[in-house]
Write a structure and sequence with these properties.
Length: 935
Amino acid sequence: MLNKTISSSFGELSGKLPLRTVLIVPFVFQTFLAVGIVGYLSFKNGQQAVNNVANQLRGEITNRIDLNLKSYLTIPHQVNQSNAVALDLGQLKLQDLVGLERHFWRQIQIFDSLTFAGIGLENQENLGAERADDGSLTVRVSTIDSNFDFRTYAMNQKGDRTKQLSNKPNFDPRTRPWYKAAVAAGKPTWSQIYPHTKGITSYLGAAMPYKNESGQLQGVLLTNINLSQIGKFLQSLKIGKTGQSFIIEHDGMLVATSTGEKPIRTVANKDFGAERIKAIDSSNPLTKAIALFLAQNAIAQKQTAQQLEFNLQNQRHFLQVLPFRDDKGLDWSIVVVIPESDFMAEIDANNRTTILLCIAALILSILIGILTAQWVTKPILQLNETAKDIAKGNWNQSGVINRRDEVGQLAKSFNSMAHQLQESFATLEQKVEERTSELATSNQQLELAKEKAEVANQAKSTFLANMSHELRSPLNAILGFAQIMLRSRSLPSEHFESVGIITRSGEHLLTLINEVLDLSKIEAGRTTINEKQFDMYRLIDDVEDMFRLKADDAGLQLLFERGSDVPRYVRTDQVKLRQILINLLNNAIKFTKEGGVCVRICMNSGLLSSGQPNKNSQERVANNQQIYFEVEDTGMGIAPEELDKLFEAFMQTASGRNAQEGTGLGLAISRQFVQLMGGDITVSSKVGVGTIFKFDITTQVVDTADDEAEQNKRRVIALEPNQPRYRILIVDDKPLNRQLLVQLLNPLGFELKEATNGQEAVDIWHEWDPHLIWMDMRMPVMDGYAATQKIKSTTKGQATAIIALTASVLEEERAVVVSAGCDDFMRKPFREQEIFAVMNKHIGVRYIYEESIDKAAQTLSKTDIKDVLEPEALATLPPDLRAKLASAAKSLDIGEVDHLIQEVKAINASIGNAFLVLANEFEYGKIASYIEAVK
C-alpha cells in the first residue's frame, strides 16, 4: 500500500517536471552527496588538528608575554621605593640637587630596563637621568637657577656634565600626567602613557608621591620605561607565520604591538608634538579589525582569559585575550591572534581538490539548468542590481526592462516606488542632521557639568577624610585613657564625675565630627539603616538622664511622657533614633531660657499636643507599628520666614547664629534619618511662645532585646585560667596610642611589645612570633599596609592575626585594609569592649567579667524604679539600714553602697534591684534623695 502511494506521488511530480530535469537532478544529487561527505569529513579532521595546535600556541605566547610584563613592570616601583627610603633615612636630600643628579645617573646605569629615573618637586624643580634610544645616558635638569628651563646635558664616565644638548623653556613637572596621577592617587601608581617631549616615542611612568614626616607633599618620584622595549619583545616572539600580538589599555588605546607600529603618531598642534592612537585607528588592518571586534563584544572588560575565533575577509583567525592588571592602576589586555591560514596550507590543498571534483561533477548537470533558467532570471537579477544601487544611495538608477509581461509590470511598479522613497529619504536626512546637531550641543554641556561636579565631590571627600583622621587620633587618646581611669578601683570617688565629664565631652566632640560625615554620606546616598532589637524604655530613660543635669543647670523643667501602649522592645535603628532625640533636645534646651521642655511618645498622632486624630495612625502591617514623637519647648520660637529653610544643611536661625553654637547640621541630619526610618518630621512655632517638632518612625515589635549590647557593658576584670600567655605586638608611631593599649592590656597579664613603624614590627615579628598584632596603618619608614603584606606573604605569617587600627572613616578603607592581608579592621577612637571582643574572635582569648546585674534589675525602666522606690515602700526597710545606705551614697563609698544594697535585696528584692540599677549608673545622689524622701 505504501509503495503504491509513493509511486503514485512520484509519478504525479515527474509528470509536472520536464524530462531533462527528472533525469539530471538525481544524478547530480548522488554525485554531489558522495563527494561532499568525503570532503566534509576531511575538512573537519584537519580543522580539529588546527584548533588544537592554535590553542596550545596562543596559550604559550600569552603566558610568555604576561611573565615578561610582570618582570619588566616590577622594577620601576621598586626603584621608587628605594629612593623614598633613601630620602627618609637622609641618605639623599632634596636640597642637594647635585647629589640627587649623580644618584639618578648611577641608578640609570644599573637598571638597563629604565629610560628615566628622577623626581619632580612641588617648587617646580625637576631632575633625573635618562637613557636615549641610542643607549647614551644624559641628565635632565630644571631648577630655580635655570629659570625652570628643562636642560639636557651629556655626561662623562665620572658623572660630570660635558655639554648642553637641548633646552625646553619654562618646564613645570606638576603639569605632567605622571605627577598629577601620583598626587591624585596619594600612593604609588602608574601614570597615563604619555609621549616623549620630542614626540618620537611614549613612556609609562611609575610615580610615587613623596611626603615629609608631617605628611606634606614634597614631590613625586618617577621612573620611566620606554614602551618601545615592550614592542621589541613582542616583535621577538615567533607567532606562527603571520600571527601578531599587541597590548591595549581598558579604553582601547594601543600600548605596544609586534608589528613594529608605534603607539603614537606625530601631530604638529599637539603637546609634545605627538598623540596616542587607539587600536581601532591602527594602520595595520589585522590589528584594527581585532580591536573593533573586541570593542563591539566588550571582551577587554572581562576578568578572565578568553579564547575566541573571528572571521576577517572570510578567513578564520584564532584569538586569545588575557587581562593584565595590578594594584597600581594598570588595566591592560594582552591580545594574540593567529590566522588559520598559517596551519591550513595542506588542508586547503585537499579541500581545493575536493571542491574541484565537486565542480567537475556538477558542471555538466548544472549547465543545462543555467541556460534554461537564464531567460527567467535575467530580468529579476537586473531588478535586484537596481535595488542594491538604490540601497547604496544611487537614486538615479532605474530598472529598464522592455517586456510587456508580468516582469515588465513589476519593473514599472518598482521604479515608481524608488522615486517615492527618494523624496522621503531626502526629507528624513534633513531632519536627522538637525537633531544630531542639537544632541551634540546638549551632550557637550552635560559632560562639562559632570566634570565640574566630580571635581567638587572629590575635593569634599578628601577634605572630610583628612579632617576626620586628624581629629579622631587625639580623641582616641582622650576617650581611651578616660575608660582606663574609670576601670581603676584606686580612683578617688570625687574624681569619677570629672572623668565622666571628660568622657562625655569627648563623645560630644565625636558626635559633631560624625554629624559632618553623616551629612556627606547622606548627600552621596551611602547612609543605610542598621536595625537591631533594643529596649525602647531604656533608650528613653538614657536620653532623659543625659539631659536631666543640663536642664537642671538651666533652671528648666524636663518632662518625658510615654503612652502606656508604646511597645517596650522594638526593632529599628537604635543609633539613629537616639541621635534624632539628642539633636532635638539639644536645640530645645539651648534656645529655652525659662519654662521647660516636654518629650511625648505615643502610638497615635491624635494624642499629641495640638494634633488632629489620624485615622490611619493605628494601622498595622504584620508586626510593624508607627511610633510618634514630639519635642515641645517654651523657648524664643522661630520666625515664619525661617521655617522653610530650617532643615537645610548649615542653616541656622537668627537665635542660633546669636548663640554661636553648633554646626547647623543637626536638623538636616535628623530629617534624613527620620525619612530613612520610614517617617517624616514637621515643625510648628510661634515667636515668643515656643516650638514643637513632631516626627514618626516605622518599627517592628519584638519580644526581647539583643543581648549583645548588655554583654558588651560587662567589664573585663581578668583572664580565665588555663590559657597560654598571649604575646601581643602594638605597632603605632604615636606614643600615646601605644601607651593606651599597653595600660589597657598589661594589667590582664598579656605579654606586650611595642614598635614605632612597620619595619620594626616585621623585625620583632620574626624574632618574637606574637599571637596578634595591633597595626596602625599610617606610619613612617614602612606603613602598616607594606608591613602586613610582608608578614602575610609567608606561611608563618598566616598564623598571626593582624588587626588594622585607623582613624579613617571611609568605607573604602576597609576594602583596602582587607586586600593588604589584615584579618580585621577597627576605627579610632575605639572602646575597650571592642578591643577585647576582637581578641576573643581572632585568637580565642577568654575573659572573666565583673558580676552582671540581675536579670530582674536589667528590665527595670526609670518609671519602674520610681514606682518601686516610693516612700511608703522604702519605709518598710529598717531605719538604720536606710541611714547607712544614704550616708554611704552621699560620701560616694562604692564598696559600702554595694554591700548595703545586698542587705536590702535580702529583705526586698525589688527595692534592692532598683538601687542596684542606680548604683551601676553611678547615680548615688538619687539613691540618697529617694531615702531622704521617707518621712
